[in-house]
Amino acid sequence: MTQIMATAHGPITAFLPCRKGSERVPRKNIRPFGPFEHGLVEIKLGQLLTCPEIDHVVLSTNDDEIIDFARSLGAPHLTIHRRAEHLASSATSTDVLIGHARELIGSGHILWTHVTSPFVRAALYTEIIAAYFGGLEEGYDSLMTTTPLHAFLWTEAGPLTYDRSVEKWPRTQTLAPVQEVNSAVFLASVDVYARYEDRIGERPNLYPLDRLIALDIDWDHDFVIAEQLLFKNLVAI
Question: Labelling 205: which of 38, 109, 153, 199 has CA 20 to 30 A away?
Answer without folding.
Answer: 153
